[in-house]
Here is the input.
Amino acid sequence: MEAGDGDALHAALRETEEELGLRPADVRVLGCMRPLLTITNFWVTPVVGLLPWPYAFQLNPDEVASVFGIPLDWLADPAHRETRQWDDPQTGARREAVFFQPFQGEIVWGVTAQITVDLLTLLQIA
Here is the structure.
């Protein structure tokens, strides 16, 4: 969050516009999920929203390398994910982290994977 954001929702919409070119007016916000602590000790509050599809993203190359999609039914299949022990390179501590199997060469893991699992649970499709 930045000083002018006011709350997590406004921060998320601002960041999404800066990084992906997704205009806040194009997002139908559904709500916020529980905050999670990342391995780099940042708190992240996931914001869930709907957007028109397809969407012409305009990526900020300093922030984002690519955008990809994975079908919800694939993500919801428990055979496509596992919890592994992971050694934190900063502290050396062992942590548990969720890892999805590769999908078209992309791997979702860590806090992004945990957010995904939490969303699937909220949607009651996990």
Notes: The chain has a mean pLDDT of 94. Residues 8 and 106 are 27 Å apart (CA to CA).
